[in-house]
Amino acid sequence: MVPFLRTLLAALLLTALAPLTARAASDDQKTFANSVVDRNTQAINDMADSLYFFGELGMQEFESTKLVRDTMTAAGFTVELGGAGMPTNFWAKWGSGKPYIVIETEVDALPGGSQTPDVFTHKPLVDGAPGHMEGHNTHSGVSTAAAFAVKQTLEKYHLPGTIAVHFGPAEESLGSRPFVVRAGYFKDVDAVIYLHIGDNFTTGAGLQDYAAISTRFAFHGKTAHAAIDPWDGKNALDAAELMDSGVAFLREQLLPSARVHRAITNGGLQPNIIPELTEVWYFVRDRTMQLAKQTQDKIVNIAKGAALMTGTTVDITYDASGWPQLSNKALSLVVQKNFDAVGMPAWTDTEQTYAKGLQKALNVKEVGLYTKPTPYGDRVQVAASNDSGDISWVVPAVTYTFPASVPGIQYHNWQAGVTPVSSIAHKGEIVGAKALADTILDFMTEPDVLAAARTEWLQVTKDAGYFSLLPPDAQPQVDMNKATMSKYRPAMSKYYLHKTPRYQ
C-alpha cells in the first residue's frame, strides 16, 4: 500500500473510532457524578426517611410517589404517574437517544410492619399498621440521586443517552411488572439495573430467584342446614379440603425444586351451615417458569376434580406471577468493578457497636457490618420470587444490591424495620447511589459492554420462549390494600416528616 493511502486509511480509522474512544467513562466524569451525590446527601436521606414513615402498601403508594414525583420534576425529569393502568406506577425519564438505561425498583411496605426506629424490641409506631420491614424506602434516594448525578454528568460532558427510574407498585404482592412489560415500557431499553437493599454490595449472573404463580380458587356449592337436611347441600368446604388433599398427594411426584403453599381465605361461616362458598389461595414456585407452569396446570386439574367429586363448581382466577430474575454476566462484571472502586461505607465504631448490639438482641451471629464488597461470583438461585423477573426476559438486566441493612437481620419481620432510617442506612444509600451512577456511566460510554450484554442475553433466552401469564383481560388490582391504608393512614400521618427534598 502506498504511504498516502496507508496514512489516509489510518486517519479514517481513527476518525471512525474516535466517538467510541471519547465515550469511555473517565475518572473525571465519575468523580463529578460522585460529587453530585455528595452535595445531595441530605436530600437523599430525607427522601428515604420520609418514605419510611409513609409506610404505604402496594398499589397505595400515593404519598411516596407524589414526593418522588415532585423531587424529580424539580430536578428536570419528565415524570409519568399512572401508566399501565396503575395510579402509583412511577416512571421518571431524562435525556434523548441511545443508550437507554433504566433503574428498576419499588417503594412499597409490608402489612403489620410498623416499627419504632432504633428500638431493638418489637415496638410498633402504630399498632397493626403497615411499615417498611424490608427497607424499600431506601430505594427511592439511591435510585433518584444516581439518575440525577447521571443527568448532570451527561449535560456537563455533552454525552448522549437516556436515563429512567421506574418504581413498580406492589412488588411484595407480585402485582405490577408483568403489566408494565405488557404495556411496552421496555421495548427500546438497552439495559435495566434492578436495585435492592442488602447488607453488602452484591451482584451476580444467571438465575437469581424462582418463578412464581399466584392463583385463587373459589368453590361454589349450595347451603343447607348441617343437621336437618345436609343431603340437600353441596359442601364447598369439602371441595376445598379435597383439593388440599389432592395437592398433598401430588407433592411426592414434584421435583425437589418445586414449592407449593396455600391459605384457605374463606372456610365457611359456622359448623351447622353447609358452606356454599370457600376460597383457597395457592402459590406455586420453581426454578423456571416452565416447571412452575407444569405444576400449576396439575393443581388446576386437581381443583376441577375436587369440584366434580362434590357437585360444586370452581372459579379459577389468576392473581399474580413473576418469572425468575435473569442477571446478565456482562453487565454484572461492570457493576462489580464499580462496587470495588467505590467501596463500602466508612463505618464508625459506634455504628459497628450498634450493629452488633442489634445482632445480639436478635440472637444472630455478631459479625457487625461488612467492610468489603462481596467478591464476585455467580449467586446461588434462591426460592424467593419477585415480579421484576419478567423484565429480564425482554431486555438485558442485572441485579444490584447496596449495603444499607445489618447482616443477619431477615426481611419481612419487624426486626428489619429497626434500621431503615439509621446512619447505617444513610451511609449505604450514599455509596449505593455513587456506584450506581458510575455503573450507568460505564454502560452509556462503553458500547462494547451493551453489545456483549445483548449477545449474551439473546443466547441465554433463545430457548426459554418468554410468555406472559397475564390473561388477555387481566387488569391490575388497583384497590389492593386500600381498606388497610384507609384504616391506618390517619394515625400513621402523625409521624410524617414533611420534608421537601430538592436535588442541586
Q: What is the topological layout?
A:
Elements: H1 3-22, H2 27-39, H3 41-54, H4 62-74, E1 78-81, E2 90-96, E3 100-105, H5 137-157, E4 161-167, H6 177-182, E5 191-198, E6 206-207, E7 211-220, H7 236-250, E8 259-266, E9 277-286, H8 289-310, E10 313-322, E11 326-327, H9 329-342, H10 349-361, E12 397-403, H11 423-445, H12 447-461, H13 482-492
Parallel strand pairs: 3-4, 3-5, 5-12
Antiparallel strand pairs: 1-2, 2-4, 6-11, 7-9, 7-10, 8-9
Helix pairs in contact: 2-5, 2-11, 3-4, 3-5, 5-11, 7-8, 9-11, 9-12
Explained architecture:
The strands form 3 sheets. A 6-stranded mixed sheet has the order 1-2-4-3-5-12. It has a 4-stranded antiparallel sheet with strand order 8-9-7-10, with helices on one face. It folds into 2 domains: 23-208 and 327-495, Aminopeptidase (3-Layer(aba) Sandwich); 211-322, Alpha-Beta Plaits, CATH 3.30.70. By secondary structure, it is of the alpha/beta class. The longest helix has 23 residues, at 423-445. The chain is 40% helix and 16% strand. It starts with a helix and ends in a 12-residue tail after the last helix. It has helices at 3-22, 27-39, 41-54, 62-74, 137-157, 177-182, 236-250, 289-310, 329-342, 349-361, 423-445, 447-461, 482-492, and strands spanning 78-81, 90-96, 100-105, 161-167, 191-198, 206-207, 211-220, 259-266, 277-286, 313-322, 326-327, 397-403.
